[in-house]
Design a protein that fits this description.
The chain folds into 2 domains: about 160 residues, Rossmann fold, CATH 3.40.50; about 90 residues, Orthogonal Bundle (N-(1-d-carboxylethyl)-l-norvaline Dehydrogenase, domain 2), CATH 1.10.1040. Helices cover about 50% and strands about 15% of the residues. The chain has 11 helices and 8 strands. Strand 5, helix 6 and strand 6 form a beta-alpha-beta unit. The structure holds NADP nicotinamide-adenine-dinucleotide phosphate. NADP nicotinamide-adenine-dinucleotide phosphate binds next to helix 1 and helix 4.
């Protein structure tokens, strides 16, 4: 069976290690703070005395720490760089597309194969059939090791040979999450200022989510097709959106709410309107985000 080391025993690194152990893989684990490895040792992992020792003992090196800078501090030491020769390095730390590409180039110079992944799941669902992990990089390398990756989540997906694409998709998938969470913060502020119970708000939000999802899907299709002009299928023009949006600006002023997000959105609306897109579809805002 493939021998694996996990570098990083934080919440996510520990969950990855537990899944490998549950599947019967021989495992070494190394963490900057060794005490965090103790629960994994109790499950059968070997706590390596150093990262280069862990790497040398393994076929696959899985990295999951805070960020690439933290990973690089240890991976790029002479001893670890040397030990990585001939190994498969799988970086599951969150990062930017260019960080993934730079790490791939560095790994290649040190004679190791490299895949970059993005974990679209929380630690509690690692190993479950629905847990999604996206991988990018050399497809044959991915396929040859897919059975190992499947241990971490049933939805193991190769997203392309460009090693930056797992990170890029991670960011693109999290963007609407943050948009929704910050939008909900704004909604909570409005409800609280206006004396609307949050339970009532949640009740009204439920049926409205279909409208939100449909508008999002429509925006993506129009962006793909560059259909920015309003047409018979347009759900709402910039005129309608910007008109309604001014009421959010008003309530922020009237109730002295934090208007930082509405101000930022208004700036994008106004740039598009100044460029002559007032009567276009909302999708006409797409070029103003680049
Ligand atoms: P965490 O519990 O805070 O663990 C952080 C890990 O990074 C620990 O192993 C920590 O080691 C290590 N670390 C931090 N700074 C370091 C440094 N300078 N040198 C060496 N090691 C360092 O965080 P986490 O939730 O496991 O997240 C880890 C990664 O997974 C992040 O990139 C995160 O974005 C990604 N991720 C997390 C989730 C999630 O739901 N938690 C979901 C998807 C992706 P020490 O123990 O020594 O501090």
């Amino acid at each position: 069976m493939t021998t694996i080391c996990v570098f990083g025993a934080g919440r996510m690194g520990s969950a990855l290690a537990r899944a490998f152990l549950a599947a019967g893989h021989v495992m070494s684990v190394w963490n900057r703070t060794p005490e965090r490895c103790k629960p994994l040792a109790d499950l059968g992992a070997r706590i390596a005395p150093s990262l280069d020792d862990a790497v040398a003992a393994s076929d696959i090196v899985v990295v999951n720490v805070l960020d690439y800078a933290a990973a690089d501090t240890h991976l790029r030491s002479p001893a670890v760089s040397h030990a990585l020769g001939g190994k498969l390095l799988v970086q599951l730390t969150s990062g930017s597309p260019d960080q993934a590409r730079q790490t791939a180039a560095w790994a290649s110079r040190h004679g190791s194969r490299y895949l970059d992944g993005a974990i679209m799941a929380t630690p509690n669902v690692i190993g479950q059939p629905f847990a999604t992990i996206l991988y990018a990089g050399d497809h044959p390398t991915f396929e040859a090791n897919k059975a190992v990756f499947d241990v971490l989540g049933g939805n193991t997906v190769h997203v392309g040979d460009d090693v930056g694409h797992a990170s890029a998709l991670d960011i693109a998938l999290l963007s609407p999450l943050w948009g929704t969470l910050f939008g909900t913060l704004q909604a909570i502020a409005v409800c609280q200022a206006e004396g609307i119970a949050l339970d009532a708000y949640a009740r009204h939000l439920k049926p409205f989510t279909k409208i939100i999802h449909d508008a999002t899907d429509d925006l993506i299709v129009r962006a793909r097709d560059r259909r920015y002009r309003a047409d018979d299928d347009t759900l709402a023009s910039i005129t309608a959106h910007h008109g309604a949006f001014q009421h959010l600006m008003s309530v922020c002023r009237e109730r002295q709410l934090n208007g930082a997000l509405p101000d930022a959105f208004d700036g994008i609306f106004r740039a598009a309107i100044a460029a002559g897109h007032l009567h276009d579809d909302f999708a006409a805002l797409v070029p103003f985000m680049r």
